[in-house]
Design brief:
By secondary structure, this protein is of the alpha/beta class. This is DNA mismatch repair protein MutS.
């Protein structure tokens, strides 16, 4: 057996080998050591190999999915080796023959299909990057849904595109693996190098034609050699990991970068579109706006949010669908009620295609089509916009497969086909006959037991069954002599004697056992055959079912966005090809949601970056904690929401199409690459200045703060001038360098704005209101006091600030600092024990629980009198 294990393991050196032995998957040698540590399970040993103990651990077959999920999340790949024959079949080849085993599947982060291993509301993308000379392409697939797309992609665009897709695994040629590993690591994708042959464009084209059973791919679009190579590598890898059982992949769709708003990785991270800075969905925009009720609708929402469109016709079609649902309250609620009953058709189809499906996957198709028919009927009586009308049409025409599944399946089928009992009575006469014999056999056994009890006069006689003897008659040992003596011994044949019972059989019982066992096995074989027929019928119309699944997701998303807009009082933005950007009473959706839960109100603000020609930049000043970063982010989010087709959190919005969104907000370092906070800031700023066009929307916060004051001011100043003169973009630029407010008088496209505060009795009150004009100062010392800095530090800071402000006009700041007396601020005195007084001594002797209300009032007057004395 170990020889077989080592032979299989040699073929998969980079994966943990799950070696099937009966009801367990066993792991040996180094695999066992690694798996035991990762899974926190016992590590044992089994025999010796080359004189050393063989480490071993195992997991139950029926619970393996949970262990697989843990291993995949920890970066492992797993090869599943199943028994390809029964032990009985192996023995026919020789008494000591080892049961034949082979790897039936390679489980990797990008090739998961089981519901228990996946997040139902997120895609699980496998990506492939191909590079042929100066031509590059990125392809990606979600084999759990059949999604397959490709686009031209240079190395410069690879990082931003991976940030948009967030693939779990990326395939590259091993000749490029090391140079691309940092990009994959940054995006959290497992990198899988493949031989260059997997990326051969000619072989790839043949591979794809074979997959789709076509002579040419021209019917799917025009693809470059690099795109063929990326798609072909995906198919080759899937063929290898799925052992020839390719998933149901939709025809490849060619994406164009020009059709999408370009958002780089840093901007996605800063804006927290789909994932918060802390990790996970909590606090991200996606979590706040997701009101979808189906898994497919949730995945579509994430795709739209991650990839806002830059095509006006596409955006307006989506927005019209949302507006239609917004105005149809009764219709929308009826649709959402029906959509809640829609299962995940895409993922059920994928498992059916991979032959990993069970009866419940067929039931998911049936239930999904049943709800689709109801939804189509509801929409048939409404005057729907084009996008909803197309979706409604895709929901019809499935009567034949629906009728077949409805007639064939029981209402609640079991999980596994081998359990049987999923085919409805009356669907197949042969199955009904076999079931009748099987089920009536039980009653026949009961009748036989009563007859035998009467015949022998032993009322305690029982007919039982086990896997060794089959059916047998059992009596207690006290009745054994009667059964073994004439005339009963002629009919009752002795089988076995145990400590307390004696077991017998009869010719009639043996014959009935054969009939019953054959009937049960025959019924199960018929059900398996019918399952294969149903599976084939579903796959025959898989393309139409996939269109229905997409239509249901489209309807769900339109209803969800309409429901969101109605509940949050959002407005429908006006979009056109102008360079307008006018938002009235805009709000940050995530911050507003958090404040609403806390019972507080969000302060809305206007923003106007409209410009017929040239730049339109607001230079935003004001103290920390006043809301500058929130204001910057909310306007970027409003633009993204508008161009994904949603309504936006504002009273009114007019947005000329945005081609790119750039954000440089917050402080972070990248120690792994040796980058300080300031270096990261400069790299991100450089990316903006080098790429932003006149249709971009840029938000910049505190450029230059990570270095010396004059260096930072000069960098911020030059950056703003470059945005104005060269990029000519729409931008919000927040800064604490008040000297920069002078640029509003020198650059025609720059306007000052500030976040207002109010001082009251030495305290600073944040009003969170943005108005035109410049801030008079930064209020940094006041904010530091709110943060809890010691009084001595605050006092000293005020002295230094006053001296610097007095010396601004003519004295060098260094000279001002040199003139300050060292340690002049009074030290905070050490806390002293409070002095006693008649009042405190009186209080020390009182037990409040023993006072009546009258006594408590008298005591209060007494204490007041003592405190005066």
């Amino acid at each position: 057996m170990m020889a077989q294990y080592l032979q299989i393991k040699e073929q998969h050196p980079d994966a943990l080998l799950f070696y099937r032995m009966g009801d367990f998957y066993e792991l040996f040698f180094d695999d066992a050591v690694a798996a035991a540590a990762a899974l926190d399970i016992a590590l044992t040993k089994r025999g010796k190999h080359l004189g050393r103990d063989i480490a071993m651990c195992g997991v139950p077959h029926h619970a393996s999915e949970g262990y697989l999920l843990t291993l995949i999340r920890k970066g492992f790949r797993v090869a599943i080796a199943e028994q390809m024959e029964t032990p009985e079949q192996a023995k026919k080849r020789g008494y000591k023959s080892v049961v034949a085993r082979d790897v039936v599947r390679l489980v990797t982060p990008g090739t998961l299909t089981e519901d228990s291993l996946l997040d139902a509301r997120r895609h699980n993308f496998l990506a492939a990057y191909a590079e042929l000379r100066d031509d590059g392409a990125l392809a990606w697939a979600d084999i759990s849904t059949g999604e397959l797309r490709v686009m031209p992609c240079t190395r410069l665009r690879l990082g931003p595109e991976l940030a948009r897709l967030a693939p779990r695994e990326m395939l590259v040629s091993d000749t490029h693996a090391e140079s691309l590993r940092p990009v994959a690591d940054d995006m959290g994708a497992a990198l899988t190098p493949l031989a260059p042959a997997s990326f051969d464009s000619q072989s790839a084209e043949k591979r794809l034609c074979t997959l789709y059973k076509v002579q040419t791919l021209d019917g799917f679009g025009q693809f470059s050699r690099a795109e063929h190579a990326a798609l072909g590598a995906l198919v080759d890898y899937l063929d290898m990991t799925q052992r020839g059982k390719l998933p149901l992949l939709h025809p490849p769709f060619r994406d164009s970068a020009n059709d999408l708003v370009q958002i780089d990785a840093a901007t996605r991270r800063n804006l927290e579109l789909t994932q918060s800075l802390a990790g996970g969905r909590d606090g991200a925009l996606l979590q706040v706006i997701d009101r979808t009720v189906t898994a497919a609708g949730a995945r579509l929402l994430e795709r739209r949010l991650s990839s806002p469109s830059s095509r006006l016709d596409t955006i307006l079609a989506r927005q019209t669908a949302v507006s239609f649902m917004h105005g149809q309250n009764r219709l929308r609620e009826d649709l959402r009620d029906s959509l809640k009953e829609v299962p995940d058709i895409d993922r059920a189809l994928s498992r059916i295609a991979l032959d990993r499906a069970g009866p419940r996957d067929l039931a998911a198709i049936r239930n999904g089509l049943t709800q689709a028919a109801r939804i189509a009927q509801v929409l048939a009586n409404a005057e729907c916009p084009p996008l909803i009308e197309q979706a409604q049409q895709a929901l019809t025409g499935h009567d034949q497969v629906l009728d077949l599944l409805d007639a064939a399946l029981v209402a609640e089928p079991p999980l596994l086909a081998r359990d049987g009992g999923f085919i409805a009575p009356g669907h197949d006469p042969d199955l009904d006959d076999a079931r009748t014999l099987r089920d009536e056999g039980r009653s026949v056994i009961a009748t036989m037991q009563a007859d035998y009890a009467q015949d022998t006069g032993i009322q305690s006689l029982k007919i039982k069954h086990n896997n060794v003897l089959g059916y047998f008659i059992e009596v207690t040992s006290t009745h054994a002599d009667r059964m073994l003596s004439e005339p009963l011994s002629a009919r009752y044949i002795h089988r076995q004697t145990t400590a307390n019972q004696v077991r017998f059989t009869t010719v009639e019982l043996s014959e009935m056992e054969t009939r019953i066992l054959n009937a049960g096995a025959r019924a199960l074989e018929i059900e398996k055959r019918l399952f294969a027929q149903l599976r084939a019928a579903v796959l025959a119309c898989a393309d139409h079912l996939a269109l229905a699944a997409r239509a249901l997701a489209e309807i769900d998303l339109a209803c969800a966005l309409a429901d969101l807009a109605l509940a949050r009082n959002w407005c429908a933005p006006r979009l056109d090809n102008s360079r307008a950007f006018a938002v009235t009473a805009g709000r940050h959706p995530v911050v507003e949601s958090a404040l609403t839960r806390a019972g507080d109100t969000f302060i809305a603000n206007d923003c106007d970056l409209s410009a017929a020609d040239g730049a339109a930049i607001w230079l935003l000043t004001g103290p920390n904690m006043a809301g500058k970063s929130t204001f910057l982010r909310q306007n970027a989010l409003i633009a993204i929401l508008a161009q994904m087709g949603a309504w936006v959190p504002a009273a009114d919005a007019h947005i000329g199409l945005v081609s790119q969104v750039f954000s440089r907000v917050g402080a972070s370092d990248d120690l792994a690459r040796g980058r300080s906070t300031f270096m990261v800031e400069m790299v991100e700023t450089a990316a903006i200045l080098n790429q932003a066009d006149d249709r971009a929307l840029v938000i910049l916060d505190e450029i230059g703060r990570g270095t010396a004051t004059y260096d930072g001011l000069s960098i911020a100043w030059a950056t703003l001038e470059h945005l104005h003169d060269v990029n000519r973009t729409r931008a919000l630029f927040a800064t604490h360098y008040h000297e920069m407010t002078a640029l509003a008088g020198r650059l025609t496209g720059v306007e000052n704005a500030t976040v207002t505060v109010k001082e009251w009795e030495g305290e600073v009150i944040f009003l969170h209101e943005v108005k035109r004009g410049a801030a008079d100062r930064s209020y940094g010392v006041q904010v530091a006091r709110l943060a809890g800095l010691p009084d001595s530090v605050i006092t000293r800071a005020r002295e230094v600030l006053a001296a610097l402000e007095q010396g601004e006009s003519g004295k060098n700041p260094k000279a001002v600092i040199d003139d300050l007396p060292l340690f002049s601020a009074a030290r905070t005195p050490a806390p002293q024990a409070p002095q006693s007084s008649p009042a405190t001594e009186k209080l020390a002797r009182i037990n409040p629980d023993e006072l009546s209300p009258k006594e408590a009032l008298d005591l209060l007057y007494e204490l007041k009198s003592l405190s005066r004395s």
